[in-house]
Amino acid sequence: MKILGKLTILLCGVLLLVFTMEFPDWGDPDSPASTHLSPYFIQHTMEDTAVPNIVTSVLADYRGYDTMFETTVILTAGLACFLLLRIERKKVPHRYYRHEPTGVTLRMEGDKFPRNSAVFQRMDANWVPYDFVISRTCRLIIPFIQIFALYVVAHGHHSPGGGFQGGVLMGASVILFAISHSLRAAIKSFSEKTAALLSVTGVFIYAGTGALCLIFGEVFLNYSALAPLFGNDRIMARSHGILMVEIGVAVAVTAVMIWIYYNLSSAGKQDEGL
Amino acid sequence: MIWQLELIILLLVIICAIAAITVRDLLSSALLLGAYSFLLCLIWAVMGAVDVAFTEATVGAGVSTVFCVAAVFHTTRRTKD
Amino acid sequence: MESIFSLVLAKANYAVYIILMMVGLYAMIAKNNLIKKIVGMTIFQTAIILFYVSIGYKRGATIPILEHHASPETVAHGAEKMAAHAMDAVDVAHYINPLPHVLMLTAIVVGVATLGVALALAIKVYNTYGTVEEDEINQQLRSG
Question: Please, are residues B60 and B51 in contact by the beta-carbon 8 Å criterion?
Fold first, then answer.
């Protein structure tokens, strides 16, 4: 199999190299990729949408239909992970408890577990002692990461950023909380039900903005129809419409990243974590 | 950027990719994937694709590495080849 | 000699992406371990993204964010400012082609979603068969 694999990639690689020599030079401003559609976007984005970041305006306005289905794909991936891995809580057979004064570990089965006990501490199967430095440091950093994520989403019009990057940053902050403390603490503050509902809400915000444009009388996802809603002219309404869909994308991406992490790191049981 | 530096970083990218599929320990493979993502993000930032570099830095080198490590943690760590 | 060297340098990015693609393809075909195959898939995807981004590069151009000439009297956005901006001719060769960047943003995020589902499948395979090596799984399938 390995020899067959090496032969295949050698053949493919040589063929691809031979035909790539016909490509235009790297860095050529007159190459066909840069001469048909992108000059229109570069020249007209300011007078059409008042957004200087060309990538954001093309992503959310000129090609907004694409981005809506991409958000749906992310939601489908989160749903697929959930449906593949999730096990119900009743099927988990045993738990480990540690008796604080003596350090003895107990393994208990059945249904009766000590709840909120002062001397019995619930542990994971691979018990890692509570680390003071890591948990306190991450507690200090996480609010700043979240503020930066909100900044990236809001400032996507003028600087590199936008909905995806801000959403992943926000999701990463909750994942950091789940890693530095325990997974159960993270689930208590941001439950799985919240994550699932938020991810659907994000897609709903995106499609809802398009439907709102339909209600106002224009084509689906033509944000200039929202001008009476914002009280502005048609160009600024497009800029605000881009902001609305970016918020929808950020919410959806945050929730799906957290949801996939909850399901992957506990292999569906959501009891223990990394 | 100086073209020699770009060439060296491209070479490092290839070395990281080959190492990520050659090492026997799956945890090292996941972390080499994270390093590969970071180097690619650097190349794209130099080439002027700042949005793509930002996304790759958060997604590829952040969340994707965490997912891989979580999956390795729940399967085995050694591999035969 | 100079022309060959400049020819190679002009297409160095393309050669690199072909090598990366072949590395990823080899991992997906020939490796035994499921997680190595998934790593190969990720390498393949990022190599394609490198290819697209290097198509859109223009030598001597800057990032695709329009330079904002902020003047103190036009603080609020309005129709007048838009007319003023439309009058500055935007030099197309001054900005890098933004279209591949847009497509690749979508590609990266879809890539991470695919990675999540693939890893969930790998964990499920491990729970069912007790191993993630492909030949052992084949053996169990044939005998069991």
Answer: no
A206-220, pLDDT tens digit by residue?
A: 999 888 888 888 788
| B46 interfacial to chain A (CB closer than 8 Å) | no
Residues of A in contact with B73 (CB under 8 A): 265, 274
Residue partners of A261: CB distance under 8 A and separation at least 6: A171, A175, A178, B63, B66, B67, B70
- Neighbours of A (≥3 Cβ pairs closer than 8 A)? B, C
Burial class (CB in 10 A: 0-12, 13-18, 19+), C73: exposed
Q: What is the pLDDT of residues B4-62, one digit of tens each?
A: 888 889 899 999 999 998 999 999 999 999 999 999 999 998 888 899 999 999 998 88
Provide the 8-state DSSP code for C64. S
* Helix, strand, coil shares, percent, chain C, to 5: 70, 5, 25
Q: Which residues of C touch A233 (CB under 8 A)?
A: 78-79
Nearest to C116 among A34, A55, A260 (CB): A260
| Alpha-carbon span C23 to C134, nearest angstrom | 19
Q: Are A258 and A195 in contact (CB under 8 A)?
A: yes
The crossing angle, in degrees rounded to 10, of helices C12-30 and A2-20 is 160
- Given CB atoms, is A13 within the 8 Å cutoff of chain B? no
Which domains are delineated in chain C? 2-62+78-143 (1.10.287.3510)
Q: Do B66 and A168 touch (CB under 8 A)?
A: no
On the CB side of A104, CA atoms within 13 Å amount to: 6
Secondary structure (3-state) at A120: strand
Q: Quote ipTM for the complex.
A: 0.91
Q: Min CA distance, B7 vs chain A (Å)? A: 14
**pLDDT for the residue numbered C5:** 61
Alpha-carbon gap: C32 to the closest alpha carbon of chain A (Å)? 10
pLDDT for C74 beyond 80 = no
Inter-residue contact C36 to B21 (CB < 8 Å)? yes
